[in-house]
TrEMBL record:
This is Transcriptional regulator, LysR family. It comes from hydrothermal vent metagenome. CDD domains: PBP2_LTTR_substrate. Pfam families: HTH_1 (PF00126), LysR_substrate (PF03466). GO terms for molecular function: DNA binding; DNA-binding transcription factor activity. Gene3D superfamilies: 3.40.190.290, Winged helix-like DNA-binding domain superfamily/Winged helix DNA-binding domain. One of its GO terms (cellular component) is protein-DNA complex.
């Protein structure tokens, strides 16, 4: 029989993937937690984590145990509340990027709050982290613009948004209805750091056409990039859903790929009324 105390400890470890921080959260010593997780792993007959470089990652079995554990603990707590005459506290968690919350999800969250009394946890994370949050059960739903997803997830297309160039309204290019990569030649651009997918997209397409441009500022996040645009430090290539600062215009690219947003969830997991309500609201807003 699975030891529930060890399962709870494993869940905390899996959330940190660091024995020192997880042990502190559990008020245990690091060696004691390490031994506890090893015994738990041995009792299940599977490896729950492995080392990848300097990092610890969950194995496929570890991820499955984490998902099961979260569902079991939530079901147990709800059952105990029912036994004592209380009402189970329904809750749902949603993972998305900061820009997705800022430009898309405000009305969705407002409508959900109007029609549901369930608790709502909003997790902010980059695209790949959103996928991980849904996979490990931290989030019931995720919205992201990643280009590849694990087969275990159900992925629904939501909306496609073009990439645009933000430039001053008095710029020579400002009268165009669309632009191409070649028009970036010689421009000062505010761009993300090289580790970000958006920067890699810009580099890949400009290098393919041998277009030279200059880095004005490196900054991550649409809002921060647009902040520096408003300070007139340079131009920017951003998601077409972003708010255009006063005195600037947004011109769509005809030869940069649009950003496709997707809704993610794990089939068969957490089939609650609250999740279904939120899914319906999301689909309604993204298709109208």
């Amino acid at each position: 029989m699975m030891d529930l105390d060890s399962l709870r400890s494993f869940i905390v470890f899996a959330e940190h993937l660091n024995f020192t921080r997880a042990a502190e959260s559990l008020y245990l010593s690091q060696p004691a937690l390490h031994t506890k997780i090893k015994k738990f792993s041995d009792s299940l007959g599977v490896r729950l984590y492995e080392r990848q470089g300097k990092n610890l990652i969950l194995t496929t079995s570890g991820l499955s145990v984490l998902q099961f554990g979260r569902q079991l603990i939530e079901s147990t707590e709800n059952f105990q509340a029912t036994l004592t005459g209380g009402k189970p506290q329904a809750s749902i968690s949603l993972a998305a990027g900061e820009g997705t919350y800022l430009y898309f999800l405000g009305p969705i969250i407002q409508e959900f709050r109007r029609v549901s009394t369930a608790g709502l946890t909003l997790i902010t994370a980059p695209s790949q982290e959103v996928i991980k949050e849904v996979m490990n059960g931290s989030a019931h739903l995720g919205i992201t613009a990643a280009t590849a997803y694990p087969e275990e997830l159900r992925v629904t297309k939501l909306i496609k948004v073009p990439m645009v160039l933000i430039i001053p309204a008095k710029h020579l290019l400002a009268t165009r209805t669309s632009i191409r990569i070649k028009h970036l030649q010689g421009l000062e651009l505010i761009v993300p750091t090289v580790d970000r997918p958006h920067r890699q997209l810009i580099d890949r397409h400009t290098q393919a056409e041998n277009i030279s441009w200059n880095i004005a500022v490196e900054a991550n996040g649409w809002e921060l990039i647009l902040h520096f645009v408003k300070l007139k430090l340079g131009n920017a290539i951003v998601n077409g859903s972003c708010s255009v600062p006063k005195g600037f215009v947004a011109i769509p690219f005809s030869d940069l790929p649009s950003t496709q947003y997707h809704l993610l969830h794990r089939p068969g997991a957490d089939k609650t009324e609250e999740r279904n309500i939120l899914i319906q609201i999301i689909r309604k807003h993204f298709t109208t």
